[in-house]
Design goal:
This protein is of the alpha/beta class and 334 residues long. 35% of the residues lie in helices and 14% in strands. It has two domains: 126 residues, Rossmann fold (3-Layer(aba) Sandwich), CATH 3.40.50; 183 residues, Rossmann fold, CATH 3.40.50. The structure holds 2-keto-D-gluconic acid.
């Protein structure tokens, strides 16, 4: 960063959600920071007014960056997402406004793949349900056949929908459990990548029919809305589990709740929800679903790495350099 001299005024930036205090202090050395350490999510009107005052902003998935948010932002050069997924960005609107959009790929791949596996294990082996059983004093009812009986992970078939970096990370972990890996993706992987994951490409229908565990890791786009709804769940085995670490809206949560209630499938593990942080009340009533509050990337090390990468993107853009993870490359002019 070209640190401004004392006589120069520092560029103004917005940090729209609370970040680690040391990261904020570092930013304050180079920028005049409008921070939101109270972590109250801005309303669209507040966000629009905030963006009007700054040249750069650090945001998270809770901030929708669209034409409305950008309408007063005459000096804004960059919005850096602290997230790899960027369905909170209207990228064409950002490009039209000449605003660089950046995200945080790679730094969270392994942590998120670990979590996908953890959620799968918890769901298939009924770990949270078992904990409630213990806490409720039900253990005395233990018997060979009466305690929570789960589904096996090892040597079963895992079906991964969305085979990007995180999907491939999950596939590689599955190999350690002797699992058979099948996947479906917009485009087929290269032969080398398929080999590295020992993964077989199949249609979405075949995957749903044959997988013991279906894991969703695809990005949210309007075309992917309700990729998994009642019709798709009906194709799955009654012993199958469904894991969603992708985005809310990819699964029809009401249809899933109904299917779990009717035992159309065995169980589900969900880290993301339609309309989160609100969870569909029908899901909350069920014991055969493991619920997590969108924490797949949430380890201290990874969240710090995400914040650091987002800050690096912001700094480079404000300095007139190409940010390392620029999404709309056409906006950048050297
Ligand atoms: C973020 C995520 O924590 O990176 C992503 O796409 O879903 C999570 O890692 C979340 O989006 C907050 O911005």
């Amino acid at each position: 960063m070209n640190t401004p001299s004392k006589s120069q005024t520092k560029p103004k930036i917005l940090v729209a959600r609370a970040i680690f205090p040391e990261a904020l202090a570092k930013l304050q050395e180079s920028f005049e920071v409008r921070s939101n350490q109270a972590d109250q999510v801005f309303t669209p009107t507040e966000l629009q007014a905030e963006l009007a005052k700054v040249v750069g902003a650090l945001v998270a998935g809770s901030e929708r960056i669209d034409a409305n948010a950008l309408s007063q932002a005459k000096d804004l050069k960059v919005v850096a997402n602290i997230s790899v997924g960027y369905n909170n960005f209207d990228v064409p609107a950002m490009t039209a406004a000449g605003v660089m959009a950046t995200n945080t790929p790679d730094v969270l791949t392994d942590t998120t793949a670990d979590f996908g596996f953890a959620l799968l294990m918890a769901t298939a082996r009924r770990i949270t349900e078992s904990e409630h059983w213990v806490r409720a004093g039900e253990w005395k009812k233990w018997s060979i056949v009466n305690n929570p009986l789960g589904m096996d992970i090892h040597h079963s078939t895992i079906g991964i929908i969305g085979m990007g970096r995180i999907g491939q990370g999950i596939a590689k972990r599955a190999l350690g459990f002797g699992m058979n890996v099948i996947y479906h993706n917009r485009s087929r992987l290269s032969e080398a990548d398929e080999k590295a994951c020992a993964a077989k490409y199949v249609s979405k229908e075949e995957l749903l029919r044959t997988a013991d565990h279906v894991v969703l890791v695809l990005p949210y786009t309007p075309e992917n809305h309700h990729t998994i709804a009642a019709k798709e769940i009906a194709l799955m085995k009654p012993t199958a589990t469904l894991i969603n670490i992708a985005r809310g809206g990819i699964v029809d949560d009401l249809a899933l709740a109904q299917a779990l209630k009717d035992k159309v499938i065995f169980a589900a593990g969900l880290d993301v929800f339609e309309g989160e942080p609100t969870v569909h009340p029908e899901l909350l009533k069920l014991s055969n679903v493991v619920l997590a509050p969108h924490i797949a990337s949430s380890t201290e090390k990874t969240r710090r790495a995400m914040v650091d990468l987002a800050i690096e993107n912001l700094r480079q853009a404000i300095d007139g350099k190409k940010p390392p993870s620029l999404i709309n490359t056409e906006v950048f002019k050297a």
